[in-house]
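Explain the record.
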Amino acid sequence: MKLYEINQALAERLTALGEMLENGNTPSQATIDELLDLKSDLTNKLINYGKFIKNTQSDIDGLDGEIKRLTAKKRALQNRTDILKENMRVAMLTHDIDKIDDPIMPIRLQNNSKASINIVDVNALPTEFKLIKVEANKSALEMALKNGIVIEGVSMEKGKHIRIG
């Protein structure tokens, strides 16, 4: 049985048992055994889910490490390439070389399609040229709510999560 099937069957049997007890009827040993079997099946299924999740998390952790390694390698190669290109650009500008006509590796200086904007002091800019980002200070809100301050439109709730192992 799948987890949702076990969960649904157990909920149905428990509801039926509750109704039976409310009506003053005594459940049979077969009904009790069936409930205990479903509860055991649920426990075993949850344990197997936990094992699968632990194995999958181990794979994810390994992949995260590999991603970090490859990202660092990519960054190092990109930085090296950028430095070499900048050295080439400076040398070509210094010696007034606009292009090199080589049949295998042609090289040329080209104007950027977009001008870059250099800002010396962002605070000196007029307001219409500034972007202002407003964010909620969640740590201050949490502290205020814990101290009993009521803030309209803000609530605090604690959820539950699965912890395996």
Remarks:
- Residues 142 and 156 are 7 Å apart (CA to CA).
- The mean pLDDT is 94.
- Helices lie at 3-22, 29-94, 138-146.
- The chain has three helices and two strands.
